[in-house]
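hey so i finaly got around to running the thing on Acyl-CoA dehydrogenase from Streptomyces cinereoruber. pasting the sequence first so u can double check i didnt mess up the copy paste, my clipboard has been acting weird all day
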Amino acid sequence: MSEPDGRLTALRGQAREWAADFRAAALELDRDPELIKDCLDLPGVRFLSTFGVPAAFATEPPAVGPYRFDGTNGLERAVVLEEFAAGDLGMTLAAPGPSMSGVLVAKLGDEEQQEWFFGRMTAAPTWTCFALTEPDRGSDASALGTSLREEDGELRLTGAKRYVGNAARARYATVFARTRPGPLGVTAVLLDTESEGYHAEPLDSLGIRGARIGQITLDGAVVARDRVLGRHLSPARRGIWASVQVFNELRPTVAALALGVAGAAHAYVREHYAGARGEDRDRIEVLGRRIDATRALVHRAASAVDATGDGYLASAAKARACALAEETTLAACELLAPAARPSHPLLDKLVRDARGVEFMEGTRNIQHLNLFQGLRSGKVGA
Ligand SMILES: Cc1cc2nc3c(=O)[nH]c(=O)nc-3n(C[C@H](O)[C@H](O)[C@H](O)COP(=O)(O)OP(=O)(O)OC[C@H]3O[C@@H](n4cnc5c(N)ncnc54)[C@H](O)[C@@H]3O)c2cc1C
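ok and heres what it spat out for the 3d tokens, dont ask me to read them lol
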């Protein structure tokens, strides 16, 4: 199924309503990302704070009308997050909740670990972060160098992570580290960031400033032994394999975030240039049709990941949605005025955010490489 049914239409309508609050706070949050702490009572932020907690661990799964949503289904996530991102991508990514770590814990955690982690998510809005990227090892995550070793009778993490969303706000971090050389030597752990040896600081950024991407130094940070994820699985089912699965699952969501940015820029230019005629009007219409077509691709890709776990089509969706976000935001600037960015701060922000989402979960080049592998293996149709 790739078209939203009645249930998802209700979810979309509610998310769109909640996203209006995100839009109202967007520019302020962009100026001062710490303002997220004053936004925790917004219904959309509250919804995100438990979105992704599997039904088995949710005290009260988020509800819209008669429907309940736990956010573990890719199509659901794509529908919701496109709307929230159209309100404001910064707020969407600044919200507390299980987010990417939730997908990893649901995949790799045993019963007790899931109960521990998701229990904390339902008890109070709690920030988490997903620490994979390292300095100089972004696109090639399998080359990561952070180590997880036994030292002084404790399991300790040593290394550095960079560009991690919410790194300095997170109370719990999922961290990828190496126990030995090679792809099977990578393991993910759940770390309490109050552990001595965890230091995180925000990095200044131009785009998606709300997400407060940061760098983390792990200076012998102690990991509780029962927080090593995938301990009940074979080495081949943990680590890099798990990160690939998590990325497959999340890719349609990231595509939906980019689509939300494109949709916001499109709505903005339609509102502020309502009298467009001739070529300008045609250009705006064509962009709208391409956004609709890309949404259909994103939903198809989300359904494919839900059905098979394969993320090849999702790579096409992510690459296309990011290209469209950049194109639409820049076209909106051209259409509005020769110097639209200083006089339209929201549009200026959308241009910056579109560049940021390109890097999340792999750049276009990496998505093209992945798609090519899918085409070669026959797992995605030409
Ligand atoms: C807003 C934002 C949020 C993020 N959140 C997180 C997070 O929560 N957790 C986390 O771990 N990381 C996060 N990241 C990091 C993100 O995953 C990396 O930025 C991304 O993987 C790219 O890595 P890099 O920045 O080191 O670029 P590089 O890998 O250095 O790439 C630089 C350029 O080289 C190109 N390139 C690299 N390899 C190849 C290749 N083999 N073939 C062709 N071209 C290539 C890339 O396309 C790119 O254009 C986030 C980034 C952003 C911008």
